Amino acid sequence: MKRTDVKKQKSMTGMHIRRSLFAFPYIVWMAVFILSPMLLILYYAFTSEGGATLENIVQAANWDNMRVLLDSVRFALYTTVLCLLLGYPIAYLLSRMKKTTAALLSVFFIVPMWMNFLLRTYAWKVLLGAFTKILYTEAAVLLGMVYNFLPFMILPIYTTLIKLDKSYIEAAADLGANPATTFLRVVLPLSMSGIISGVTMVFIPSTTTFAISQLLGGGKTMLYGDLIYMKFITEQSWNAGSALSIILLVFVLLSMTFMKKAERKTSDEGGGRLW
Amino acid sequence: MKDKHLIELIDVSKAYGGDVALSHVDLYIKDGEFLTLLGPSGCGKTTMLRLIAGFIMPDEGRIEMDGVDIASTPPYLRKVNTVFQKYALFPHLNVFDNIAFALKIRNVDKATIESKVENMLAMVNLKGYGSRYIEQLSGGQQQRVAIARALVNAPQVLLLDEPLGALDLKLRKEMQVELKNMQQRLGITFIYVTHDQEEALTMSDTIVVLKDGVIQQIGTPTDIYNEPKNPFVADFIGESNIIPGIMLQDYKVRMNGVVYDCVDKGFGKNTEVDVVVRPEDIDIVPAEHARVVGKAVSVVFMGVHYEVDVDCGGYEWVIQTTDFVERGQVVGISIPPDAIHIMKKTKQTNLFDAVAYPDDEEVEFCGHRFACKGLESFRTRDEVLVAIAPADVRLVPPEDTELTGAVKACMFLGTHYEVTVTCDEEDWIAYSLDYMEAGEEIGLSVPADKIAVSANEAN
After folding, report:
1. Maximal C-alpha separation, chain B
2. Taking the domains of chain A in order of start, what are their residue ranges?
3. Under a CB-based contact definition with an 8 Å cutoff, are residues B47 and B15 in contact?
4. Does A183 touch chain B (CB under 8 A)?
5. Chain B residue with minimal CA distance to A169?
6. Angle at Cα B450 formed by Cα B446 and Cα B455, nearest 5°?
7. Residue ranges of the domains in chain B?
8. Which of A173, A178, A186 sits opposite B90 (nearest CB)?
9. Between B75, B80, B91, which is nearest A269 by CB?
10. Average pLDDT, stretch B45-60?
11. Helix, strand or coil, per DSSP, at residue B369
12. Cα dist. B85→A133, A241, B76, B157, B163 in Å?
């Protein structure tokens, strides 16, 4: 009896800390490094010399800039499609291998990710310059982007495929489906959630990419990320840069909503959801 | 049921990375029969089903269907369909499309698909469920969809892998009857895998009892129940009294010092046998008229009957009776001749490959050195074969010996338990007076003069 009384008293005098308190450092972090930059961008985008205005946005949304945005989206689409065409077979092969072999092989995809992507891109610049004639062309930019974003396509698809119950494949074969039909009618639809995750993880960052285009495109290919970079750093025009950023943000949010909807539609069977 | 052999397994073996799943199995399955593969987990029953479905290939032997070897035919070209243990219904398709799957990939026209699927839905009592998704169905409904999906193609053979395992008892009973009716109505061969002996007895035309990848007995439910071929089958199929006896001559057997009339013959004179008597076949009679009397040491009400343990000095009979008996009461027991089932004694010996060390008077096997006599004729490090009778293996507390193993199985044989102990990847058979839990750690020891050593002729 006595022992429980002591325990009770201890807890009542506030000996234990409320769990939400542990979230405090994270909230501070978010406020300083995520929320305040966003607010600053909003401020610069909608003000001009102290007064509120839509002028920046209207100016930023000119035809030249929108062409750059369309170009960026085009590049992002190419990258996503190429990553999907390359990444799905790789993920599929990995998922059919023995766990140990697959783990060993996936190290080859993961280890380069430990290195900064700028370093990897510089390496490509040297290699392409030394051995090919495609440096400073759109092909080089595309290669650099596919190379950088491929792991983000492979991993979610691999995760989905590895979780796929083998009995579905056996059931399809049992019902008369040859391997190709089994793949098209069972494996592919059941890995759709992984594909959507992969597409999101490649498409969104590659829309906003910069530096790769500068390094491998030699300034001939201007992407939207480069445009923002130019406004902020070269022209020191924070208002214009912020306005461009806001436009991109709206575009990204729209595409994410679209993909989230697509993901909701597919079954969550075995799939790793992003949100 | 016709007499045609639809499927035949000829000398089929299968191992998974050195672990034998099936060992030289021969079996034929008649057209239109309900055949059940029955056995404890790991006995090879699912392996056999998967071989017939085509998901795995045999290491050795032939699998014939209609006289053609199909051992290497891929599953999608075989005329068999499977109801999977966890149904494996496609989660991205609704009920209609799940059932239509096999028809759609064969490019059957839309109207035919529609009518066939609707027929199937009606057959499994799921009319109007076509547009539901799998996750919206209960376990029993999923079960029905799985059956409909497998049957829509009108296969010659339906394979069922413990299909009722996930259902609750009441639903399971209903589905047993339904499946049996369905099989009789459609005239399709059913090959059914289960570990539930009651299910097997209820539904099957033929039962195949398996243990450790070897067929123990093939027969009708009545045969298997009434005339089990060995103690394993007797023990696995229902409760039984299994006691050692001596067949004195045809129709006379002595058990526990008492001679009984029986209906078996052909075992020779004075042969050691095992005797099976089902608990419900033993009658309790007034003590004054009985040849055998004993004391009721335990009386348990089981719903339909009482289960009474009667101690007759040396052997405790398990008896099922509808008459109430007081605990402690002295009763007589009577066993009618046709209730006594005689089985050939299964002789078991522990055989191990070993290395001889005559100088130390020791042999090494199971990663352990044993003191041993009679090694004079061997040289050091000679490979030899050692034989140890199960009765000579002593089970001791694990702390008393260096050689320990884990209990794999424990089976009551009337006067003692037969214990299988896995030790350094070898199975030991030993006898024990006490029950041992599977997984329990136990020490093993063998007296030096009980190890019989012989030259290893395989080398």
Report:
1. 85
2. 21-53, 61-265
3. no
4. no
5. B88
6. 110
7. 5-226, 242-343, 350-455
8. A186
9. B91
10. 95
11. strand
12. 59, 60, 19, 17, 5
**Cβ–Cβ < 8 Å for B331, B284:** yes
Chain B residue at shortest CA distance from A265 = B92
H or E element in which residue B354 lies:
strand B350-357
Which residues in chain A have Cβ-Cβ distances shorter than 8 Å to B102? 175-176
Q: Measured between alpha carbons, how far is B445 from A143 in angstroms, rounded to an integer?
A: 70
What residue type is assigned to position B347 of the chain?
Answer: K
Segment B291-312, tens digit of pLDDT: 889 999 999 998 889 999 998 8
The set of residues, in sequence order, having a beta carbon less than 8 Å from that of A141 and lying 6+ positions away, is A75, A212, A213, A216, A217, A221, A223
pLDDT at B411 over 80: no
- Nearest-CA neighbor of B369 among B379, B357, B353? B357
- CB distance B84–A171 less than 8 Å? yes
Single out the residue of B451, B331, B321, B309 nearest to residue B392, CA to CA: B451
d(CA B418, CA B421): 10
ipTM of the complex: 0.77
The rounded distance, in Å, linking the Cα atoms of B7 and B139 is: 31
B5-226 carries CATH number 3.40.50.2300 = no
Query: Token pair of B204, please?
Result: 């099957």
Contact flag B55-A181 (C-beta cutoff 8 Å)? no
**Whole-number Å distance between alpha carbons of A179 and A193:** 21
Query: Quick check: B362 and B371 in contact, CB under 8 A?
Result: yes
What's domain B350-455's superfamily in CATH?
Nucleic acid-binding proteins (2.40.50.140)
C-beta atoms of B54 and A185 within 8 A: no
Residue whose structure tokens are 């352990």: B368
CATH superfamily assigned to domain B242-343: Nucleic acid-binding proteins (2.40.50.140)
Residue of B76, B81, B132 best to disrupt the A interface, most CBs of A under 10 A: B76
Q: What is the DSSP letter of B109?
A: -
CB proximity A5 to B under 8 Å: no
Task: Give CB contacts under 8 A, 24+ apart, made by B251-258.
Answer: B251/B337, B253/B340, B253/B342, B255/B315, B256/B312, B256/B313, B256/B314, B256/B315, B257/B314, B258/B291, B258/B292
Name the fold adopted by A61-265.
MetI-like fold (1.10.3720)
Q: Are A175 and B91 an interchain contact pair (Cβ–Cβ within 8 Å)? A: no
Phi, psi of B74 (to 5 degrees): -65, 155
Q: pLDDT band at B70, cuts 50/70/90?
A: very high
Measured between alpha carbons, how far is B448 from B369 in angstroms, rounded to an integer?
A: 11
Structure tokens at B227: 């005339």
- CA–CA dist A119, A141 (Å, integer): 15
| B5-226 shares its CATH topology with B242-343 | no
d(CA A134, CA A267): 42
Residue B373 DSSP symbol: S
CB pairs below 8 Å between A and B: how many? 65
Tens-place pLDDT, residues B323-335: 888 999 999 999 9
